Amino acid sequence: MQKLLYLLCFCLLVSACDDGDVIDVKLDFDKELSICNLSAGNYFLYDTKKNPSESLSLIFPKNSRTDSIFNPPKNNYKTTLTINGTTTLFNYRTYDGSPENLICNLLPDATTHILKDYAANSGTVTIITTYVDDDDDGIPADVEDANLDGDNNPATNPTDSDGDGIPDYLDADDDNDNVLTKDEKHNYNKIDGLSKAQDTDGDGIPDYLDNDDDGDGVLTRHEDANLNGNPMDDRDSSSPTPGVPRYLDKEAKDTYDYQKLNKNRYKRTYTIKFYINNVNLDVISLTEIEFGTYTYSIMIESD
Ligand SMILES: [Ca+2]
Ligand SMILES: [Ca+2]
Ligand SMILES: [Ca+2]
Ligand SMILES: [Ca+2]
Fold first, then answer.
1. 245 bridge partner residues
2. In angstroms, what is the span from residue 248 Cα to ligand 4's centroid?
3. Handedness of CA 100, 106, 111, 112 (dihedral sign)
4. pTM for the model
């Protein structure tokens, strides 16, 4: 009788949300997946919602193959897993309280319970991992490319203003002066673009692309009096403008022998999409569910 009731519930659910081949079991799930790190041996991804309280979750073992989902050998990397109901699990659950009180909670709320638990015992999971790189300097990647090849892709034939081999869209310091682009007042916004970028010496080259910002003939990175790789914290107390850093103060012309270039860091943002195919949730089979997307970022450091 109980199973019949489940069947009835699920049929209502599915018929309400049937969208051709792709059946949206999400109800009102936002498809933004979270990851739970409570178990060292497994990956545990889930999505929860309230009113009514429900969760979808996917568990699979951690190994070199599944690690590659999160650290792929190449962009647009595809992985498939087989749901077997034992080590690789896909569950749809309902609750009498907030799912967040139970899922991934070291101290589960004793008053919240799982009401129904549909566990798939077969099906496949298709996972596509893509990533986008950006130096996070506040200028969008497509704006940092002159797009001379006309393909609107900053990664092909990329602009490299300082010629250091690191394209502008990945170069956090576009003029190699040891002052990060984000600190050189590029003043980018969607309306003005880069037209309001600061140009201290007024030579037509904005500070973020000018390796001698004050035009005093001393490279900005050689105005680093304390030789710490940061020209922003060096001032000349004998200058008429002692509060202005040397690299922006054309009266401060001392040269310091600092040759080192700081390491470059850029951000890689992964987007991992999970599709559940031909899943059997005990009482019903579904052709395809878009389980959702998990996103995260790492910083990559290079010379
Ligand atoms: Ca560069
Ligand atoms: Ca710079
Ligand atoms: Ca300038
Ligand atoms: Ca200078």
1. 235
2. 7
3. positive
4. 0.80
pLDDT average, residue stretch 136-153: 92
CB-based burial label for 142 (10 Å; 0-12, 13-18, 19+): exposed
- The distance from CA 266 to its chain's CA centroid, rounded to whole angstroms, is 11
Strand residues in 70-134 grouped as ranges (E): 77-82, 89-95, 114-119, 124-134
For tokens 């799930």, name the residue.
29
- Say how far apart CA 96 and CA 99 lie, in whole Å: 8
Which ligand approaches the C-alpha of residue 161 most closely? 1
CA distance to 184, 216, 226, per residue, from 213 (Å):
9, 8, 18
At 221, phi and psi to the nearest 5?
A: -70, -10
Helix (H) or strand (E) holding 297: strand 285-302
Among candidate residues 209, 295, 296, the one with its CA nearest the CA of residue 30: 295
Please give the distance, rounded to the nearest whole angstrom, from the Cα atom of residue 210 to the centre of ligand 4: 9
Length of the chain: 303
Distance 213 CA to ligand 2 centre (A): 9
Which segment of 17-26, 65-74, 97-106 scores lowest on mean pLDDT? 17-26
Q: What residues have their beta carbon closer than 5 A to ion ligand 2?
A: 173, 175, 177, 179
d(CA 247, CA 253) in angstroms, rounded, equals 9
CA of 181, nearest ligand number:
2
Asked if 270 and 276 touch (Cβ cutoff 8 Å), the reply is no
Distance 169 CA to ligand 1 centre (A): 8
Select from 253, 246, 200, 250 the least CA-distant residue to 226.
246
- Summarised one tens digit per residue, pLDDT across range 81-99 is 999 999 999 999 999 998 9
Whose atoms come closest to the Cα of 168: which ligand?
Answer: 1
pLDDT digits (tens, 9 = 90+) for 208-232: 999 999 999 999 999 999 999 999 9
Q: Give the Å distance between the CA of 27 and the centre of ligand 3.
A: 55
